[in-house]
Amino acid sequence: MVNLTFVSAEGRRTELSVPAGTSIMQAAVQNGVAGIIGECGGSAMCATCHVHIDPAFAAKLPPIEDMEEAMLDCAASPIDARSRLGCQIELGPDLDGLVVYLPETQQ
Q: Which residues are within 8 A (CB) of 94 and not within 5 positions of it... i.e. 6 or more apart?
């Protein structure tokens, strides 16, 4: 199991423990975390799973691919250097304890 924490734009924290291999988006949607929609089901086609990664975990993530970067340009909330699509990040032991911050809106 991998532990992660979602922090809403209002500062509300939701802590989860999910099986390794689950994406950030899947973890949120399957557990009813408000603020992640995941309209496209994880195919990097909608940007409704935009998250901001805690800087302490940035180096542990796979590099951002061109398609993900292009979709982030469509995100409803401002993006920054910490922005990623939650559907493109698979959780594993190396990301145990991950903290992700949710934007104000996904639409």
A: 60
Query: Sign of torsion, CA 27 32 36 39?
Result: positive
Query: Beta-carbon neighbour count of residue 7 at 10 Å?
Result: 17
pTM over the 0.85 mark: yes
49-104 residue pLDDT tens: 999 999 999 999 999 999 999 999 999 999 999 999 999 999 999 999 999 999 99
Q: Give every CB contact of residue 46 below 8 A, 6+ residues apart in sequence.
A: 37, 38, 39, 40, 71, 74
Residue for token pair 């291999």? 21
Backbone torsion region of residue 103, taken as left when φ is above 0, otherwise alpha when ψ lies between -120 and 50, otherwise beta:
beta
* Distance from the Cα of residue 48 to its chain's centroid: 10
In angstroms, what CA-CA distances link 76 with 1, 72, 95, 98, 106?
31, 9, 26, 23, 5
What span, in angstroms and rounded, lies between the C-alpha atoms of 1 and 62? 19
